[in-house]
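Lab notebook, bench 4. Continuing the backlog of folding jobs that were queued last week. Each job is logged with the same field layout so the records can be merged later without manual cleanup. Today's entry covers Major facilitator superfamily (MFS) profile domain-containing protein, a 632-residue chain. Filled in by technician R.K.

JOB TYPE: sequence-to-structure
TARGET: Major facilitator superfamily (MFS) profile domain-containing protein
LENGTH: 632
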Amino acid sequence: MFSCTELKDNMKENGVEIKDNGAEDDARNSADIESKLEKAGIIKAPDGGYGWVIVFASFMANVLVDGIIFTVGQSMLGLWEKEFESSKMATSITTSLLSGCYLLAGPLASALANHFGCNVVACAGAVIAAAGFLLSVLVPALPVLYLTFGVIGGIGFGLIFLPAIVIVSQYFDEKRALATGLAVCGSGIGTTLFAWLNPLILHATNNNWRTFLVVMAVITLLCFLCGLVFKSLQPTETQVEEVAKIAADYMEKHGIEQNGLDPHEKLSGAVETTDSPLVAGGVAIERFTPKSRGAQSNIQLNGRPFLSTIELNANRRNKSDLWSHNDLATIVSKESVADLNRPLSRMNIFYPGSTVHLVARTGGSNLFPAETRSRCHSMIDHKSSIYLSTQMLPPAEEMGSSSGGITWSAGISAALRSMLDMSLLKSPSFLILAFSGFLTLSCFFVPFIFLGKQAGLKGVSEDHQSYLLMTLGVINIIARVACGIIADHPSVDPLVVSNAAVIIGGVATICVPFLSEFWMFVAYCVPFAFGVACFAALRSVICVELLGLEKLTNAYGILLLFMGIAALVGPPFAAFLSDVTGNYDLSFYVMGTLMTLSGLISLPLRRINVRETAKRNVNDAVSDVELDHLAV
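JOB STATUS: finished
OUTPUT FIELD FOLLOWS
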C-alpha cells in the first residue's frame, strides 16, 4: 500500500511530471484559516458543570423509555390475547411495532433535533408517546392498537431517546465515556425498576390493561421534564466577535485580491449556488464568484466549504455597507455561530467514548474518498478537522427567500440525507456490519418478551418471572459500564469483545429450552444481557474503527433502519413459531441461532476491512496524482 507521497515519487521516476503551481501554498493558507475558524467557532464542551444535570436528565429519560419498552410486552401480551382473542403472533406485533418504530424514528429524531434543538424534540416525543398510550385506552380492536400503541408510541419514544444521547455528547468530550455510560445505565435500571413496578400497577388496577396504559402515559409525560433540561450550548459574544474578525480578514486580504471581482457582485452570486456543500448550516463565506453552478469555497474543512450564511444574512443589508469589520460583525450573529454547532455538525456526535482517543481509533487511513482526495499534507496536518461533519447546501429553490435563510424543511432534509446516504452499502465491511446488526436485533427483544412465559411453562411462578427481567436489567448495567471502559481504551479491540459477547449470548439462548429450574433461567440472563449490552454499546466504536469518523453519522442512521426493521419482524416471528409448535422451544432455538450467526459472520470483518481500506487508499492516491497532473 503506497502513501500519497510515495506514489507521486514512483510516478516521477517513471517519467510522469507533477507540478503543484502554488496549489500547496494555497492549501496551507486555507488550512490556517480553517484552523482559526474551528478554534473560534466551535463551542468547547464544558465536560462538567451543567453537563452533569444533562447526564441526570438523560439517565432518567432512558429509565422511563427503555424501562417501558423492555417490560411492557411481558405485562401486556397475555391480557391482549384474552381481550382480543388473538394469536400470540398477532398480539406480539403491538410490542414489536413499539420497539421497531422507536429505532426507525432515530434518523428523523436526529434531523429534527439538529434543526429545532434536543429540548423541543424530546418534549414533543414525550407528548406524542403519552398521547399514543391514551388513545390506546379507547381502541375497539387489535389493529387499531398497532397504530396507537405501536406506531405512535414508538415514534414518540424514538424522539426522546436520540436527543437524550446527542445532548450528552454536546456537553462532554474528554469525559464522554463516563457521561454516556452513566446516561445509558438508565436502560438497565429502567428494566429492573419497571419489571418490579408493572406487576404492582396491574394488581392495583385489577389487571385492567386500559387503566395500566393511563398510568404509563402519565409516567411517560415525566420525559417532558427531562426534555426541558436539554438546552443546547450557546456561543459567547467574544466567540462571535472572533469569528467575525477572521471572516472580515479573509474577505479583505484573500477573497477580493484573489478573485479580482467587485465584492458586491461576488456577494450576490454566492447565494444562488446549488451544489455548494455546507458544514452544519453555520456562519458562511462562499468564494464570492459570480452566479454559477457548483462554485466552491476557498475556506474548507474536510475538503468542503466551511461557511455559507454570511451572504444570506447580508442580503438583508445594504451591500455598499458590507465591506468593513464593524458591519460584518453585525452580520455574523450569535445565531449563525450557534448554527455551526448544531448536533450533526460534529462527526463524533454518536461516538460514546472520549474524543481524546479518536485519533488512535481512526488511525488516519480509514477515511473515505471525500477526505482522502485532499492533499496529503493537509489530510495529515489538519487533525482538528475530524470533529466536523458535512451537510449539503440545498438547491436554491429550497432556500428561504424572505428571511434569506434556509427553510426548516430543507435543513431537515439535508440532515436526513447525511444520515441515510445509501451509497455506504457499497462497502463490504459496512454491509456485513449492518446484516450482523439485523440478525442480533431480530433476537434482541425476544427474551425480554418470552423468557418469563418459557419459565412459566417450566413451573416458575409469575412472581419469579418478573425477577428474570430484573436480572436482565442489572446485568445490563454492569455490561454497559464495562463497555464504557472498553470504548475509552483504544488498546482493547471492540470488535473482538462484541463478537465474543454476541456469540456466547446466542449459544446461551439456544440452550434455553433445556432449562428447567428458576436458577438456571437466572444464570442464562448473564450471558444474554452481556451480549446485547456489548452489541449496543460498542456498535458506534466499531463503525469508527472500520469506516472512519467521517462516516459515523451516516452509518449510525442506516444501522438504525436495519435494526428497526429487525425489531419489527423478530418477536412476531418467534411468536409465530410458538403458535405453530405450542411452546417456545423452537423460538429460542431459531433466535439463538440467528444471534450466534450474527457474531460468526463478523469474525473476518477486520481482515475484510483491511483489504477494502488498502484498495481504497491506493485508488484515491492514484486519483490525487492524476488530478495534480491534469492541473498542470
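OBSERVATION: DSSP finds 27 helices and four strands in the chain.
SIGNED: R.K.
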